[in-house]
Amino acid sequence: DIVMTQTPLSLSVTPGQPASISCKSSQSLLHSDGKTYLYWYLQKPGQSPQLLIYEVSNRFSGVPDRFSGSGSGTDFTLKISRVEAEDVGVYYCMQSIQLWRFGQGTKVEIK
Amino acid sequence: QVQLVESGGGVVQPGGSLRLSCAASGFTFSSYGMHWVRQAPGKGLEWVAFIRYDGSNKYYADSVKGRFTISRDNSKNTLYLQMNSLRAEDTAVYYCAKDLKLRWPPEAFDIWGQGTMVTVSS
User: Fold this and answer.
1) What is the C-alpha to C-alpha distance for residues A23 and B2, in angstroms, rounded to an integer?
2) Which of B2, B45, B95, B100 has the highest number of chain A CBs within 10 A, making it the mutation to test binding with A?
3) Which of A51, A101, A104 sits opposite B109 (nearest CB)?
4) How confident is the model at residue A87 (pLDDT cuts 50, 70, 90)?
5) Angle at the Cα of B69 (from B6 to B89), degrees rounded to 5?
């Protein structure tokens, strides 16, 4: 089974400042079809999760461009260029090369 | 707009059964794979089951294999999860989610329902 490990598990950010979350997988997420099956979700307080980034670096429809994803193989990063109050919640990375598995989640709060 | 509405949650005794439903609207349900994902109270997300757009392939997490059955009725735009032999550790909010990709292969979840709570307790 592929294990997804996120760091840090919590993050306190001043509005307007950048934030970064790391996600490491125990196996490469690069498929033979050339795609890398790594996704980022945000679960805002009291809400269902929402898709932010698909296939490492593609922003889903309606996602602000302050969110960006990068990485390859087993190491991935989600960056928020300037954190806003509405960005609070728990961020999850997820792999789908081998069924579907999430990281533990990173809780982001505003200072 | 695209919408998923779960129902059927509730309180059930250990060893009991429950069937969840997810009513879909706003997209061509019969063209997309569908998933169930759960979240235990205060915990992270756990994928539970997937069904192919035409119902011909089903995958399950090891934690529910042999106890849960995913199914769909494309004529009713509805997804189901039959849960048998329920355990305390199955207590969670259960979300249905639409797959990102048209037809096949499955990829990830792009649209989620609001969730339905299942509590397994005596």
Assistant:
1) 30
2) B45
3) A51
4) very high
5) 75
Determine contact: B5 vs chain A, CB below 8 A. Answer: no
B35 touches chain A (CB under 8 A): yes
Picking from A87, A67, A101, A70, the residue whose alpha carbon sits closest to that of residue A15 is: A87
CB distance A48–B106 less than 8 Å?
no
Express each pLDDT in B21-67 by its tens digit. Answer: 999 999 999 999 999 999 999 999 999 999 999 999 999 999 999 99
Backbone angles phi, psi at B22, to 5 degrees: -140, 110
Confidence band of A37 (pLDDT split at 50, 70, 90): very high
Confidence of residue B86 (pLDDT cuts 50, 70, 90): very high
Do A99 and B107 count as a contact with CB atoms less than 8 A apart?
no
Encoding tokens for residue B117? Answer: 């709570």
Closest CA relative to residue A100, chosen from B108, B100, B54: B108
